[in-house]
Q: What sequence folds into this?
């Protein structure tokens, strides 16, 4: 039987908003969508819980996350790299 989910995994960039958990961070991803009626572009935010194996991420870091198998009830992403450290 052929695997249905052989597509590319989601890769997202976002900002770490919480690092209070052990080996987990909350990443806020920003995207722009166009309003259906007014055609104006609006910012939308979504928060993902991501696995941070080495506890390297801090609040304010810009990170890249990738989709993975379910690691817990809410975690479906892993931190692949920290693109920009917080000051």
A:
């Amino acid at each position: 039987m052929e695997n249905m989910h052989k597509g590319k995994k989601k890769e997202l960039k976002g900002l770490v908003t919480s690092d209070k958990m052990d080996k987990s961070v909350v990443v806020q991803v920003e995207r722009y969508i166009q309003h259906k009626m007014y055609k104006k572009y609006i910012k939308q935010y979504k928060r993902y819980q991501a696995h941070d194996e080495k506890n390297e991420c801090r609040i304010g870091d810009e990170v890249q996350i990738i989709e993975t198998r379910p690691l817990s009830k809410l975690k479906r992403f892993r931190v692949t790299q920290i693109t920009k450290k917080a000051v």
Remarks:
- The chain has one domain: 11-84.
- The chain has a mean pLDDT of 93.
- The chain is about 0% helix and 50% strand.
